[in-house]
Design goal:
This protein is α/β, with parallel strands linked by helices. It is built from 9 helices and 8 strands. The chain has 2 domains: 117 residues, Oxidized Rhodanese, domain 1 (3-Layer(aba) Sandwich); 57 residues. Helix content is 43%, strand content 17%. Helix 4 links the parallel strand 5 and strand 6. The two termini are 35 Å apart.
Length: 186
């Protein structure tokens, strides 16, 4: 496989490009680049057989999408042994939308994975502080642990909490809502 860290959005916008969205099925159901298929990050393995099963010209690249590019880079690393060029779309879905390219929107009303991480981290930090104040000072360690995890996530650009939350049932089940493609407002 040829490794390239990122490619501009325009490279993935060509007709017939194989676009793979590696976000959770719930996120994909809410919105995704037109023409993309959903293969969640957790479903990818290193041998790349899934890419062979997707079809298309083996010589043509596979463009990986996520919200901003972080999970797509993780997916690219997992597919290092694939027999196809696997390229990460710079800026992910956000850049695709900003470029005015078509986005398919479903009627899913779930919460994005990023917001789920903020809600859980905030709740656990608050819980640790309240329990430390009311029950035992040792509960402050919970808040410290969450804070350390957020610092680690910021430094490494990898969030363990997001990877765990992605495995929860509401992030795995794809919505059956009808979707429609439309150009993104600029």
């Amino acid at each position: 496989m040829t490794v390239s860290s990122t490619v501009p959005v325009a490279a993935a916008a060509i007709d017939g490009a194989l676009r793979v969205d590696v976000r959770t099925p719930g996120e994909f159901a809410r919105e995704h680049p037109a023409g993309a298929i959903n293969v969640p990050l957790g479903g990818l393995s290193g041998e790349g057989s899934l890419l062979r099963d997707l079809g298309g010209d083996v010589g043509s690249p596979v463009f990986l999408f996520c919200q901003t590019g972080q999970r797509a880079r993780l997916a690219q690393a997992r597919l290092a042994s694939a027999d196809r060029r696997v390229l990460v779309v710079e800026g992910g879905l956000e850049a695709w939308r900003e470029a005015g390219l078509p986005v398919v929107e479903g009627t899913g009303r779930g919460i994005s994975l990023e917001r789920q991480v903020r809600i859980v981290a905030g709740t656990l930090t608050l819980l640790g502080a309240v329990l430390a104040f009311t029950l035992h000072p040792g509960f402050a360690a919970l808040s410290g642990f969450i804070g350390a995890g957020l610092v680690f996530a910021g430094l490494t650009n990898s969030c363990g909490m997001a990877l765990l939350l992605a495995r929860l049932p509401w992030n795995r089940a794809a919505a059956c809502a009808p979707a429609r493609a439309h150009p993104s407002p600029r």
